[in-house]
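[Q] Does anyone have a clean structure-token version of this?
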Amino acid sequence: MTFRKLPLVLAASAMTFVAAGLGIALPLGAIGVLIVREGVERGIRAAGVAALAVATVDFGYALVAVVVGDRIADALSGVERMVQVVGALALTTVVVLG
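[A] Here you go.
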């Protein structure tokens, strides 16, 4: 490799690492794919509105979890084993029945 090609190699390596980092940091789930599709079909403004709506709902869920989560944890203290067994049965049922 010559000295002239070094900046190109470094830039290519950096872009590879950036792409890999974004692939880990920004996974697209079902809702993300729908927002991207909305943007492709109706434009960036519609996608922005959809993303804001999703963020608002996520904030609402987080707020409920913070406000009510401690009370639910207190109510379920002492019956952790039963909650684990019920959860395991529910997951097993989902696996068996599809």
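[Q] Thanks! Anything notable?
[A] Residues 73 and 80 are 10 Å apart (CA to CA).
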